[in-house]
Amino acid sequence: MHAEICTGLSVDIDNFSEVFKELEELLHGITLIKEISPKTEDYLLSFGERLSVRIIADYFNNSGTPAIAKDAWDVGFITNNNFGEAEILPDTFENIKHTLEPLINNYTATPIVTGYIAKNQAGTITTLGRGGSDLSASIIGAALDADEIQIWTDVDGILTTDPRLVKSAISLPLVSFEEASEL
Question: Which letter does DSSP use for residue 151 in this model?
Answer without folding.
Answer: -
